[in-house]
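so i finally got all the pieces together for this one. its two components total, 526 residues if u count the protein bits. some of the lines might not be protein, just check the labels. i wanna see the whole assembly predicted at once instead of chain by chain like last time, that was a mess tbh
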Amino acid sequence: MKRFPEALITKTGPNTESYYEFLISKYIAPYFTFLFKGLGIVNPNFITFLSFLMIFISSAMLVNVRMLPYVYYRVIIILLIQFSLIFDCSDGQLARLTGRISKLGAWLDKILDRIGEFMIFSVCGYVVFQQSGNHTFLLLGITTGYCLTAYTLAMAISGSCKLQSFVAIRKIKRKKKSGKDHKNIINRPATQIIKKIFFFLNFGIGERYLYVSFFVLIFRLDIMLYISSLLSFLRMISISYKVGKNLKKTDTLIKELESHE
Amino acid sequence: MNELANNIITKGSSTDSYFHLFTAKFISKPIVPFLIKLGIHNPNIVSFISFITILWTSALLFMSDQEKIMNRIIVVLLIEISFILDCADGQMARFLNKKSLFGAWLDRFLDRIGEMVLYTAIGYFSWLYFGSLVYLVLGVITGFLFSYYSLIHSHKDYVFYGELMKNPHQTGTFTINTSNKITTRFTIFGKKYFKKNAFIKKMRVPFFFLNIGIGERYFYPIVFILLRRTDIMLIIVFTLFFLRAMNVTLKLTRQIVKNKIGVKL
């Protein structure tokens, strides 16, 4: 992929949390980015809205349970979901390509993602509920959506908590820069290979849509709901545990700074 | 008690919810010394107990028979206890001087999850009780909107914090008043956003129920579960909070677009 400038793919490197999203953003999304640029669409927020609109339409199509047994109908839904994922990858690349990086864009991208995910998983729960008449599937779909919003909420709240003690943390960061660099486990080659093989166990942004589209195709959404609720719950627990650990560390460092002064 | 009063309720006056202020002032204040006497010295445990209580309550809501008055009173009492403990943990941390970033994070995070679970449970209960799926959808969307509201506020801070760490001496788009060493005050999008009209401030006391703050999210279930009309409650809370969330979204986007805070490459 030497044809594309490296600046496009700098942010979504192999260390990204979702391997499927990495593959799409590396091999498919750049074509669309250049297509948009050629068409004259320079505003990345427009593409973010377009990707959200596609997810909205696909979840509205899923609600219509009567049409779901037809294969062509399901294929249209899957195409819409996959294209929304591609557009979601390419809007960031377009912003980097045209130099239109904005705070609004970063903010809008994440929040519309969360709304779309919540919508599609709860709608999947509703579909299985309509088929089987079992309440638990509806609740499973809702819990999946809730867990996915909750883990982003955990990260966002930790950021806004850290903002409160900005000065103390800045001092710590300066001290760290002068000292040794801490080892990063994610950068080790062995963990990278394991991540690539078991990429479907990591419920990242790409894998969510992959699961939905695969199980819509074989029309067994009930299995998907069991898997997705379990994986998203585990993800929420693990990420909030990490965030809490990180915050406890900074707490102890701030106390040390206070005692020194 | 006078020492307590001075120490504890310093933060409560700036809250946006009147019911929250009321419980913090009159109910949870005397509970803090009681909790300390019981041997609980860690405020994080208090917020965790409050979270577990709200989970238990939301399970009880549709597990027990709500036709009986006693069951309803138990549910309402448990919701109230959870809310009081939620107010008490911050006061306890301020009183024992055990303030920490982890505690602030845990309190807010568990609050959001608890609210989401409670409103989904209420929606599920009213679906079973009144027989319409619309109530479950309303409850779920209301629960999601609570987390959405908190997400748009804190994600703004999250992006802002990332920008600050990249370039700490950046000026122009924001100002930092370093009055204290640890706690710094930020006026991010100009002062206008934080100033409030004096007339609106006065009218807040009688019409406190129109503003769905942290306290009112618990106040509405307490009243309407006792009356056994959770369907009306869901419609009211959803419309009021939807308006508020949309209002805040529009305001925030307008502020971000006006200021044009871009990352310098």
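Chain A has a mean pLDDT of 83.
Residues 6-260 of chain A form a domain with the Four Helix Bundle (Hemerythrin (Met), subunit A) fold (CATH 1.20.120.1760).
anyway lmk what u think
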